[in-house]
Design goal:
Blueprint lengths: L6 H4 L3 E2 L5 E4 L2 H14 L3 E5 L7 H16 L4 E7 H5 L6 H5 L7 E5 L6 H6 L15 E4 L2 E5 L5 H5 L1 E2 L2 E4 L3 H15 L3 E3 L5 E3 L12 H28 L5 E9 L4 E2 H10 L8 E5 L6 H9 L5 E6 L16 H18 L4 E6 L5 E2 L11 E9 L2 H14 L3 E3 L14 H10 L4
Helix pairs in contact: 2-3, 8-9, 10-11
């Protein structure tokens, strides 16, 4: 792991047992793992997601939570969702479904401070979500944690391919993400059984109507406290561990100037080692400008990037303007592809296209607008490396290499107005 010593300079690794790391492959397995985690938890179930769907599969999850509350009177149930996405749909929203358990569980909705004033009232439902979201997806069951890009919705339980890493019995990691949950929810709105949302009593600054600068300062200070506790815990555990596997938890809250993921990826993309290789995945390929500039002008190693084909994009065949979103991502990938060829970079782009499936797997996330959290796994353990290799092989079963001719296909046609639109609004997607 010497090649990654630089990570320990500014970030806090936690040792893990490599045998405790499970790489889940399919949406069905992901759903079953969620149900099993809720069913077997004894002390806590803490879930952070963008939204909870309202179909039969999601109702079954809520039923499992109710059974957990009945069977374990002292269990803690905590759920964090995004305010905008989680209240969309009125009586068919996440908030409506979760009001069933609000008296016995902590159900919170985070509202971005970036949506306020005239913008709050001018932007319509759904459109307003481009401003910023609670986008962390982690699911804690006692001292185990499942980290993913997948939400709690039937699409993600059936035919939307994502990535899912389950780390069993790692108290320090579970505690850190639980601390993140507590920090964010202390600035969020809590749901009651009547469906009403009220700002957490611990928060004295309204994110919508209060002082913007004061809210951001207080939020950042609270998250910084969590990171400092992690740093202390990391030093204690690393000093007494001989594990060949480390996990680096990190956050990306750009609007609060907390940029762990951004800084790590920029360093990784410019890593000076010709023997290094990198495979990256994105369901919505629209690289942050600094990422693309670093990859194109500073990277020195081969790179494979897996994208969603237009048909595998979650907005494919969407209604109205949303139906053109896949074209926006096609345009972004074409521009990047042309740059890689012009600069003679060893970068290959691939499209994921599986009939009736969408592709949501990702290795990098929103930089400036959303709350993001994930982990970097570093290991020299042969068995775990083999698991990771097989996971990559599985994701690449349904890909085809992007060539110049790809963008000449009818399903890759990008209307001229979309190209113009993307110049001004690409950073919102």
């Amino acid at each position: 792991m010497d090649s990654f010593n630089w990570l320990s300079e500014g970030y806090s690794p936690l040792p893990v047992n490599p045998n405790s790391v499970q790489l889940i492959r399919t949406p069905t397995e992901y759903y079953e793992k969620l149900k099993h985690g809720i069913k077997t938890a004894k002390k806590r179930v803490v879930l952070s997601t963008l939204y909870l769907g309202t179909g039969n599969l999601e109702e079954a999850l809520v039923d499992n939570i109710i059974h957990a509350l009945d069977n374990n009177p002292g269990i803690r149930i905590g759920i964090l969702l995004d305010y905008l996405r989680g209240t969309r749909g009125g009586s068919s929203s996440s908030a409506s479904l979760l009001s069933r358990i609000a008296d016995n569980a902590e159900v919170y909705f985070y509202h971005t401070p970036d949506l306020r004033g005239y913008m709050k009232y001018l932007l319509a439902e759904r459109t307003n979500e481009i401003v910023g979201l609670q986008h962390m997806k982690f699911y804690i069951f006692d001292d185990s944690i499942l980290i993913s890009g997948a939400n709690l919705s039937d699409l993600y339980f059936t035919h939307r391919q994502d990535r899912y890493v389950f780390i069993e019995n790692c108290p320090a990691l579970a505690d850190f993400f639980c601390d993140v949950f507590d920090a964010v929810t202390s600035f969020s709105f809590r749901l009651d059984s009547s469906g009403k949302l009220e700002l957490n009593s611990k928060c004295h600054i309204d994110p919508i109507n209060g002082s913007d600068s004061d809210f951001r300062t207080a939020f950042r200070s609270r998250i910084t406290e969590v990171q400092r506790r992690l740093e202390k815990q990391s030093k204690l555990l690393i000093a007494t561990s001989s594990s060949d596997t480390l996990v680096f938890p990190f956050l990306q809250f750009g609007m609060y100037d907390i940029r762990d993921e951004e800084n790590i990826l920029l360093r990784l993309f410019s890593y000076p080692n010709n023997d290094f290789t990198l495979t990256m995945a994105s369901g919505y390929f629209n690289l942050f400008d600094r990422y693309s500039e670093t990859i194109l002008h500073k990277s020195s190693y081969p790179m494979d990037i897996i994208l969603a084909s237009p048909q595998a994009n979650g907005f494919f065949n969407g209604n109205g303007l949303s139906g053109y979103i896949p074209s926006l991502y096609v345009h972004a990938s074409e521009l990047f592809y042309k740059q890689t060829k012009r600069l003679n970079k060893e970068i290959n782009l691939f499209e994921y296209n599986r009939p009736d499936w969408t592709f949501h797997a990702k290795g990098y996330r929103s930089v400036n607008r959303d709350l993001e959290a994930q982990v970097l796994l570093v290991t020299t353990n042969d068995a775990l490396k083999e698991k990771l290799s097989k996971e990559k092989q599985y994701l690449m079963e349904f890909i085809s290499k992007i060539e110049t001719a790809t963008f000449m296909k009818r399903d890759h046609y990008v209307p001229y107005w979309v190209k113009i639109f993307s110049r001004y609004f690409k950073h919102f997607f």
